[in-house]
Amino acid sequence: MAGIGIVGAGIAGLHLGLQLRQHDVPVTIYSDRTAEQLAGGRLPNSVAHHHTTVARERLLGIDHWDAEEYFYFGHHHYIGLPDPLSFPGFFTAPSRALDYRIYLPRILGDFTDRGGDFQVRPVDPADVAELSDRHDLVVVASGRGSLSAMFPRRADKSPYDSPQRKLCVGLYEGIAHSEPRGVTMSISPGNGELLEIPIFSFAGHVTALLFENIPGGDTEVLAEARYDDDPAAFEKLVLEKTRQHHPRTFERIDPAKFRLTGPQDLLQGGVLPSVREDYTRLPNGKYVVALGDAHTVVDPVVGQGANCASYSAWELGRTILEDQTFDERFCRKVALRRENVVHATADWTNLMVRVPPAPHLLQLLGAMSANQAVADTFTDNFSHPDRQWDILASPERVRKFLAGHGMAD
Amino acid sequence: MAGIGIVGAGIAGLHLGLQLRQHDVPVTIYSDRTAEQLAGGRLPNSVAHHHTTVARERLLGIDHWDAEEYFYFGHHHYIGLPDPLSFPGFFTAPSRALDYRIYLPRILGDFTDRGGDFQVRPVDPADVAELSDRHDLVVVASGRGSLSAMFPRRADKSPYDSPQRKLCVGLYEGIAHSEPRGVTMSISPGNGELLEIPIFSFAGHVTALLFENIPGGDTEVLAEARYDDDPAAFEKLVLEKTRQHHPRTFERIDPAKFRLTGPQDLLQGGVLPSVREDYTRLPNGKYVVALGDAHTVVDPVVGQGANCASYSAWELGRTILEDQTFDERFCRKVALRRENVVHATADWTNLMVRVPPAPHLLQLLGAMSANQAVADTFTDNFSHPDRQWDILASPERVRKFLAGHGMAD
């Protein structure tokens, strides 16, 4: 076969390419950045891979970070109510967070070592038609605007018309990790969330602070303050907002050592949550499949985007290995296979950023604080967003789930 | 839980009920016929269970017909072209055909022995609303017109507006079975198909002759001739049409012994192929799931209806066992799980009855006559309609499949 062309060298494109190379399928990945550029530049995100993703990495033979030091074991929750709630939840198998400037170049090396073709060139929608003549199938796995726009946004699955959080994520030194090592998910009602994530970066084991700021809330300033204008003032502002809103993290900070690990290790902005159509038909009659951010973009508040992209890549890869006729039947099979997990990921994440929070979400969080099994199920379901949505899709579902844990209304 | 209510005691309702009883889910099956009525009356069909269905029967603990005598091992094809084609195809595991007047009462007995509740009462759409208040979920697994009509017919998946074959199926003595024992699929171009099926009925191991008659063709008369007016004349007509069109079957008939096994062992009519919506929402807000003939009706030409109903029941049962909140999310999960197999069953069957036949179908049949592996794959795919449709959905797919067997255009 003339093989598969993949536009985008993020986790979606690379996991798909690596899976196909295991079965000797010819694959070309197109990227607008070189491996060196992927390794440099600004912090792209603060992604954790949950255990279902880690399991796929093992199957792909790219589990290079399997030592205990890279993993964390659960979530420490803090909800800043007048009477604060503070409780942990544990995974059935650990997660890990790696700086994608380390991760992506390493697995891109695996891809090329294994016979994958990597081509650096910009690709816009007009180029996709040309690539479709050259390959049996083209997969668009890049969230860049003009490429995403090839796949219509689904209004029924995209409830917001603007980003719901203003984001500020940076890598910091001077924060002792929680015990047992975990992500701290801290909620400041009306202001937003802080995700404190143990992450491996160029400076070693450091801490990502991902502030998810509600527009108009007290921490919104973090998304707009300019580090480069006055690094010390910026770090002082982060420290102060952490002290005011997120005491479980603040109590582990040594202010004397607290600093951003580098001027590039900061990302500010926001994402518009979108679910798009699974595929499109080009004027030449060929079909193009959307993957990763080209298909679904979620707010990072529950760390699902990369995991969902990896899952979706895996299901697409399985379908390619079973069926090499890339017509609408093929595309429909891909859509059927991934819909439950991908849409559940979007629906759950969209619920988590709703302002004000849904009463049934608050009910579940309250129950988690009182029942370890409930907290652990919610926590482990970061690996199973479809099961999470089975619990959270409606007030009735939360009631039934809690009743199953002996917690009647 | 208040349990599951199932309307209909055919294979769909009973397989679902038996699966749920294995997990102690309360189940009530509603039928307009008693067990005795199911065991009597007119021949309802001439169904074969293919090996994926037999495997489910094993899992359900209802594999009461596991002796070699009940099974058959493949298909004997005959295509009455000027230069006739005649060739076999073999399964990877055998199929079996049982008279449903034996099969359904026996597994209904299993259902009630295992704590299932069986209630004899007519149910119309107005009653479904009442039943929905009594049960956690109501499943409609009956193809009776007013019940099916609760689920809109999908025009995109229902290409015909009338039955494509006029059917005449009866049970006969006086036909030696083929060697190795199999179904003979005989095609008389322009007139239709004969399916000759070894089947176990009240008279023991007999033969079903299912004539699939194209309207206007030479055998159409079989669907209209009245056995009761003159049994000998009817049998003589069947014999004569078999002699004229289906020599592979005729050569094994002993005319002196050839007879219908009983006046009730004959069914004439036709079916309108229909794919319907997966579920509907009642005015009280509860959802009702369509199963079996209420969801999808296919012409019997490739023996898929009952197998598809059993498959669909199994997927619905799995979903019920995983998730007991019967809202739209639940229904959507069921729809996603079964769509590929159920729609492939309908699409494949609709292709098989198209007049004139599609060139790519003829191309595949020709290739089967020349290549045993191609014939065996097509034959075994009676257990895998989704894989069959992967081969047959388009001319391009047939070409690719044949190229994979070294048969270029």
UniProtKB/TrEMBL annotation, chains A, B:
Family annotation (Gene3D superfamilies): 3.30.9.40, 6.10.250.650, FAD/NAD(P)-binding domain
InterPro entries: FAD/NAD-bd_sf, StyA_sbd, StyMonoxStyA
Domain Styrene monooxygenase StyA putative substrate binding: 143-252
Pfam families: Smoa_sbd (PF17885)
UniProt cross-references to NCBIfam families, sorted A to Z: StyMonoxStyA
Name of the featured protein: 2-polyprenyl-6-methoxyphenol hydroxylase-like FAD-dependent oxidoreductase
Organism: Amycolatopsis thermoflava
